[in-house]
Design brief:
With 226 residues, the protein is mostly helical. Strands 1-2 form a two-stranded antiparallel sheet. The longest helix has 17 residues. The protein is globular and about 40 Å long. The N and C termini lie close together (11 Å). About 14% of the residues have low confidence.
Amino acid sequence: MTEAVPSPASLRAAADRLVSALAAHGDAEYRLTVLKRLARRLGEEHYPMFLRLLAVVAESDDDRAKRLLAETFGTALRRMDLPGGALSSWGATRLPDNVTPFSAGALSGQFFGATPRRLLGPVEYLTVWHLQRTQRTPLGAQAFRSALAHLIALLNHSEDARSLYPQKLAADAENELEGAYTRATRERLAAVAAAWKAGRSPDEVAQAALDAVPEQAPGGWVVRDL
């Protein structure tokens, strides 16, 4: 990726603007709209920037900001409408059968797996980014662990997020979702769900995700930090 890396000061300023925008409105649904609008405006190529803004708040000592952001995710989980990012699906490519007619014009980029891309919530996005072949350079194991631990620590500031997100992940882990997740990804989502639901610390939950299956990155893959 060639985009410029924002400075810590610019990230803190952007996170502060986000929290101020959320705090300016008492309506939970409106706060969710603000959060989703930010994710959309950044675009799918810059969803990791959205995750970095969440991490800035998570690493701060502002408990009010953490609670505000976590409760907005709690609202999203109640509505099953998480601010998501898109990653290409490993199972998107489908070979033709011997019955259904099709023309050579059907052999487009979409046919060969360039699309579709599914919207994933923050935890799911990090896990897929780390484990699966997508349009992104894979996320390294330690970067995955650190980002996941910070995210869970942030979300734990909302009782709704703390209880509902593990339930969602457990359900996702049991559903193949038309190829959205590999088996290794589903196993890690299940491990996150179980450890989180059991009340383990964010660091322990993140480590449980890494311990769930052996490191899967094939030889020759380049990995990156968040």
